[in-house]
Amino acid sequence: MRLISVLLFAALSACAATPTPVDKGPKAAPPERSAPPPARVPSRTAVRNFIEVIETIEPVAEEVCRVQAPHLNCDFLIVYDANPRAPMNAFQKVDDDGRPVIIFTLPLIAEARNVDELAFVLSHEAAHHIAGHLARQRRAAIIGATIFGNLASLSNDPQAVENAQQFGAALGARTYSKEFELEADELGARIALRAGYDPLRGAEFFFRIPDPGNRFLGTHPQNADRFRVVQAVAQGA
User: Fold this and answer.
1) Structure pTM?
2) What does the pLDDT read at residue 11?
């Protein structure tokens, strides 16, 4: 863990001088906030926050996973992408052995202003795995590719069929993407709460990232909608 801390600190120090790409697309009205955003933390603090959150959230997420999805591999592996020019992001995938992997990019670690924000993001990504979103997304993509491919087969043009299948797969994969994000926000907020973090404070991250708006076929819901989901969990707790 000591070596990881040193490497992560060095990478974050380099990242601090690298501008993060910003989406200039249209934005929906963000949720209102009553206080100014917290200041960015030094690289050493960001490292400590990241390691603390991993050590605290991981066992809670694994426990929730074993209860809610006992058929899944619940042994989370949490790593970071050492590329300082990677976009600000965190995402979940499954490796060849079926183990869930959660990856944070350095710009996201550097941008998080406190442990609550990191805890909420990590819990959100763990929730995607627990809810089986990747498998459900793949099924939707296969259905979309099959439907559009069958329609295009009437043209007897192999290239048209291939193009239709690709379009159908992309369309199918996006069908439930907004719903999946809101589901992960809700379950992620509950995981963060259970681990002792404040998901409402963590969801303030939405105030500082570009809002995707309510775009047709957009992959993420509006930030205001996402904040309201977390707010409802916090109020219920």
Assistant:
1) 0.74
2) 55
